[in-house]
Every structure is written in structure tokens, then in C-alpha cells.
Amino acid sequence: MTGKTQAVLLALTLAMTATLAQAGDRETSGKLLLTGGVTSLEGAGGGGLATWATVTGYETVDEVGANAHATLVQLPDYQFRAGGVAVGFRDRVEISYTRQSFDTGDTGSKLGLGQGFTFNQGIVGVKVRVLGDAVYAQDSWVPQVALGVQWKKNDKDAVITAIGGKDDSGVDYYVAATKVLLNQSLVLDGTLRATKANQTGLLGFGGNKNDDYELQFEGSAGYLVSKRLLIGAEYRSKPDNLAGLKEDDWVDIFAAYAFSKNLSVTAAYADLGTIATFKDQRGLYLSIQAGF
Fold first, then answer.
1. Which of 47, 104, 210, 278 is deepest in the core (most CB within 10 A)?
2. Quick one: average pLDDT of 234-260?
């Protein structure tokens, strides 16, 4: 995603926010603030690193909700950008699309790829709630459960082959369980993902070290400081498919603030470990989401 494309997406996000604000305050209907999550790196509703069982948007079982998002992760040697849209139908089905860009900047020259070499990836996702209600079933310990699939396509097939990757496209499958405990002000999620993706697919799928699907875990725990502010932490395990390109698990500490049901901002300190031989990739995660 180019800088110009990012600027256009951000402008559309803000324009959507203004339009929705003019339509009136909807905070008295639909889901509670922040209980639907924000937008994950791959475009699905959830945390920043983890995908939740919640369906994006603030729609009820009789409505349609949607959002647009723009995300930036600034690391010592790389920059990650993403933007996309998601639609939730009747709090049951979610369809999402996001476009990711992984900019190697000055590091591209050191890796022999060239200054500012950028990997791009498109992700189409579908999620279906199959059981429970994360928020309104407070008399039950049963979580909300959703099944999901994400189809991913990278645009750097030649480079992926050169580093030992097997494919430039792949499919992830996941099952997520999310529970909001209102009396304890807690939001909890656990997700199992079957994947071959290297760095979520930005470095391709499968590799010369392993080319089989593996189960990975994603977990989030958040505390609702107020109805507008959620703080917490996330963990995401990663496969390690490429010989010589070690891949570490990811963690973050985050804060998500909802100005209204139409606009929220998430900031985090993310530790992504080693990426393409460069260690200690820690930095700022910032995401803006507008919708209804």
C-alpha cells in the first residue's frame, strides 16, 4: 500500500465517521462499547494481534454493521501498514478484506532486496458465529464461539521461492472463543489457528523447514477501565517454516479507546521478536477504526 493509498483510506475512514456522527448517537442501541473488539492485523474483528469470536460492527441480530480501518506498526528495521473494510451481518457473519504492506526501508538493501522493498498481501476473511453470546449471556460461562477462514495472497512469488517458501498464497482456518465478564470488567479470548503462513503470509506459506499445517494459539485478556477504555495484553504463537529465517512469537500491551460507537483508536507496544534475521523488532502499534 502506497503512502497515497493510505492517505485516501484514512480520509475515507474519517469521512465515514463524520457521516455517521451526523446520523445521530447510537450508543443506546446495539452492542456495548468496545465489546465487539477492534480490528486485527488481518482485518477480522478482535484485538490487534488476535482474532476474536465477536462479529465486527455494532449491529444487533436484525441489523448490518461495518467498519473501515487503517493500521501502522513502526519497528526499528521495518514498517507495517494495513487498511481495509469489514461488514457484519445480523451479529452472525463477518466478511472482511484488508491489504497489508511490509516495507523493509533501509533494511531492504542489507537483505539484498533493494532500498524500500515492500511485500504486499491481500486477505479475504469470513467468520461465522456458531455458539453463544460473548456479552449478553452473563448467566452462562459458555463463551461466544466462531469459525473462520482467511484466504491470503502475496505479490512477491520470486522472492518467496528464493528464501525457501513453498507458496505465495494460502488459507488459514481458525476457531475462536470470546467471553466478556461484565461484573469483573474482563474481556477474554482464546483462538486456535491452523496455518502455514510465514509472518502471517507476508513471507509466503510453508517452507524448506516445514510445509505442513500447524496449530497456533492466539490469546487476549483485557480490562474495561471504563465503558470507553480497554487495556490489556495479547500473545500469538507463530510457525517456524523457513530455514535460516527464525520466526518468534508475538506479544503486545495495548489500550483501546472508543470516542463513540463510530470511532475508536488502539495503541500498543508490540514485541514481534526476530523478523528476517533482524532481532528485537519492538515498536508502536497504532490503529484507527470508524464504523457503525
1. 47
2. 95
